[in-house]
Amino acid sequence: MAGSEVAQNEGKFLKSLKRNAKQIREDRANVIFGDTNRLYRRKVEDLEDELKKLQYSRDALIDLAPDSSMSNVVAPKDFDAATFIEEDLKLGVQMRNIEIKLEIAKRQYTELFGGE
User: Fold this and answer.
1) Alpha carbon distance 94, 116 (integer Å)
2) What is the secondary structure of the chain as a DSSP string?
């Protein structure tokens, strides 16, 4: 192949060999930025989902409807107040910890990536 023919058919490999340091840094920065942005956004979404699931679990604790459609009365013997309190507090603490993480993650995401 003649030199002019190579220049006309310049492929990705040759273009890559000719890149200067600034172009290489920019390409690497774009890859790192894109991966980190995507993973950070997913982490925020995961925390939001986890918080919703805990809220559903907490709501389920106060669902005292009888299991049978024939009965509309909840018997005191079917309810363990101590267990309810422990579970409610445990879920509340877990939710609060996730709320704190979520608040920090959202603030940092916005600061780092300029998005919401």
Assistant:
1) 24
2) --HHHHHHT--HHHHHHH--HHHHHHHHHHHHHHHHHHHHHHHHHHHHHHHHHHHHHHHHHT----S-TT-----GGG--HHHHHHHHHHHHHHHHHHHHHHHHHHHHHHHHHS--
Query: Which residue shows structure tokens 């918080």?
Result: 51
Higher pLDDT, 31 or 17: 31
pLDDT at 1: 52
Q: Do residues 52 and 95 touch, judged by C-beta distance below 8 A?
A: no
Cα dihedral 18/20/23/28 (nearest 10): 90
pLDDT of residue 74: 66
Mean pLDDT, range 41-50, rounded to an integer:
98
Separation of alpha carbons 75 and 30, rounded Å: 62
Give this prediction's pTM: 0.73
In the chain, what are the domain boundaries?
A: 22-58+78-116
